[in-house]
Design goal:
single chain; 196 residues; alpha/beta; Rossmann fold; eight-stranded mixed β-sheet; 33% helix; transferase; Phosphoribosylglycinamide formyltransferase; phosphoribosylglycinamide formyltransferase activity
Length: 196
């Protein structure tokens, strides 16, 4: 039986689209809902166009109460009974109380070669450090930010004249290839690291 996948987004949802479009045919999972913390996120319309249920839990409705936001997010998720939760450009830091509920079942994609450059501004940080390569990682989500077991990585060479914007644009197609590959393996209970 196919695993049920919920995808959390905050913006345009390009990684969500790549994940959703990969879950066809004999894939061991299928998307059941796309949820955003921004009711105006462009990815929600894309998900509806793909025939996927959508929901929004606006974090701005809970300005001083992260636990209340997470409780509503959890209840919304549980309405769809997900086996796996994929963070795909979800720009909210989740507390230990939330991540513990999905331990071993939640994935995230991060635009760096973890453990390097956890957090934001990864492309600029790689350039400032003088690195000769950059990449993206898919990892299991734990309470610590960008710190769970790495299940896959894709690498690109940093070229002369690269900017954070050019790095980001060259890396995105690899994100769209890596995340679906890791999800397919993960849904099939195969945690062999994927590298390219």
């Amino acid at each position: 039986m196919s695993k049920r996948v919920a995808i959390l987004i905050s913006g345009g949802g390009s990684n969500m689209v790549a994940l959703a479009q990969s879950m066809v045919g004999d894939h061991p999972a299928r998307p059941v809902v796309v949820i955003s913390n921004d009711p105006n996120a462009g990815g929600l319309a894309k998900a509806r166009d793909l025939g996927i249920a959508t929901a929004a839990v606006d974090h701005r409705d809970y300005p001083n109460d992260r636990s209340a936001f997470e409780e509503v997010l959890h209840k919304t998720l549980e309405g769809y009974q997900p086996d796996i939760v994929c963070l795909a450009g979800f720009m909210r830091i989740l507390t230990e109380g939330f991540t513990a509920r999905y331990e071993g079942r939640m994935l995230n994609i991060h635009p760096s070669l973890l453990p390097k450059y956890k957090g934001l501004h990864t492309h600029a940080r790689a350039l400032e450090a003088g690195d000769n390569e950059h990449g993206c990682s898919v990892h299991e989500v734990t309470a610590a930010l960008d710190d769970g077991p790495v299940l896959g990585q894709a690498r690109i060479a940093i070229e002369e004249g690269d900017t954070p914007e050019t790095l980001a644009s060259r890396l995105l197609p690899l994100e769209h290839k890596l995340y679906p590959a890791v999800l397919r393996s993960f849904a099939a209970n195969d945690k062999t690291p994927i590298r390219f």
